[in-house]
Amino acid sequence: MRIHLLKRNIKLVILVAAIFVTMCYLAGIYGLKPQNSQLSDYELVPMYGGHRENNEKPSPFDDYDDPFSSSLITDLKVYNKVKGNKCLEQRDFVFIKTMKCATQTMVQIFRRYGYRRHLNFVLPRGGNIYLGWPYIPELQDYRPSKRPFNALAEHSVYNETVMKSIMPKTTHYVTIIRKPFSQFKSSFHYFNVANISRMKTTKDDISEYLHHLDMYETFYKTPAASATRYCIPDEFSVTKNLLSHCLGMPLGFPAGRENITSQSGKVAEYIEMLDRNFMLVMIMEYFHESLVLLKRLMCWSMEDIMYHTVNVGQYSYKDKTPDPENLKIYKNWSGVDFLLYDHFNQSFWKKVKHQGDDFFDEVKTFNDIHTRVSKYCSNLEEGENSMTILATAFSDHFVVTKEYCVMLGVDLLTFLKTRMEREEGWVNQDTGNKGPKRGC
C-alpha cells in the first residue's frame, strides 16, 4: 500500500508541476486577465461564494486560466442528498486546525470544497502558512479582502470574538481532536522535541522525557533552543494541553494571558462554550464516522468528503501501547486535554445517535466508495480517463477524473493565494514591514 501511495504521490507532483508551469507560461504571455476585460487592476470580480447580486452567473473570464477549471462548481445553490432528502449545502465555515490530528488531511477537504466553489478564504499574508498560530489571530496575520469571507481553514487559535468579527453569522464551526496521549506522541515526533531538548539517548524517548519533564520542557522553551524550533516561540509548550490551546482556552500563553489550567470550574465552562459554538468536533479515531457526520450536518455530497491521507508521521513508538506509569504522568501534566477529549467524545456519539439507524450504513457506503476512488487515483497512468460512481441511497452519482485525483493530493493553499492575488491585486501593504511580525 505504501509503495502505491509513493508512486501516486510522485505522479501527482509531476502532474501538478506541469500544470503550474503551463499556467505561469500562459500568464506571462497573456497577462493575468483577458484582453477584452474592462476591469481595472484592483477592481473586484464577484465570485460564486454566494455574494453576487440577483443570483447572477459568474463571468466566463472568472477562471479562464484555472488549472482545475473542469472541476469548478459555478452554481450558487447546490442541493445534495442527505438521509433520503435534498437539502441546501452550507458554504460558510471555520475549521480550527488543531495540531497533529489528521488536520492536514482535513484541511485538504475544506480547501478543495471551497476552491471548487470559489469561496473567499481567510489566508495568511505573504509566504506564511499560519494565521498567527500559536497566537490569537490579528489583522496583521491575514490578507484583507474586498468581499466577505466564507471560509477559514489554516492554522489559527480559536477566539470567539475574533472569529465573529471576520466571519458571517451563518458560519459553521468545525474542528477535530484525538486521544491526548496519542496526540502527544505525534507532536513529540513532529516538533523534534527529543533533539531540541538535548535528551540523552535512550531506548524509550517518551519515558525519558516524561520522567524528566521539568528539565527537558524548560530547555525546549528557552531562547537557547529557539534557532532549532521551527515556528515555535519561546515559552510555548508543544506537549502540554496543545489541543485546548488551539481551541483558544486561556492557559497562560502568551505571557500575561490568564491561566485557568488549575481552575476546574472555568475549564468546564470553557468546554461548554466550545460545545455551544461548534457545530461538530470530529474524533480522529473515528475518522470516517466523523466525515459522514460532517457531510450530513453541512449537507455536502459524498464527493466532497473524499480524501487522500497526507503528512502521516512514522516513528518507532507510534503504535506502542502506553506504559501505565507514563500515561499517568502525562495525564497529570496535560489534564485539560483529557477533559476536553472525554467531553467531546461523548457529545460526538450523542450526535451520531440522533442520525438514526442508517448512519452506519452510510459509513459503510463511504468506505466502499473511498476504496474505489483511492484505487483509481493510485493508478492514473494505467486506468481509464474517468470513473463513474453510481448513485446510492446516500449520494448522487459523480464522476472521478484525473484532474479530480490531482486535487485530492495537491496542496491548494498556493493556488488559493494565487487566485486571490490575481482577482484582488493583493499585495503586502504593511508600511515598513516585510510581512507578519510573528508566526510562520
Automatic annotation (TrEMBL):
SUPFAM superfamilies: P-loop containing nucleoside triphosphate hydrolases. It is a single-pass type II membrane protein. The chain crosses the membrane at residues 12-32. GO terms for molecular function: galactosylceramide sulfotransferase activity. GO terms for biological process: glycolipid biosynthetic process. GO terms for cellular component: Golgi membrane. It is found in: Golgi apparatus membrane. Keywords: Glycoprotein, Golgi apparatus, Membrane, Signal-anchor, Transferase, Transmembrane, Transmembrane helix. The keyword Transferase applies. The keyword Repeat does not apply. PANTHER family: GALACTOSE-3-O-SULFOTRANSFERASE, PUTATIVE-RELATED. Belongs to the galactose-3-O-sulfotransferase family. This is Galactose-3-O-sulfotransferase 2-like. It comes from Dreissena polymorpha.
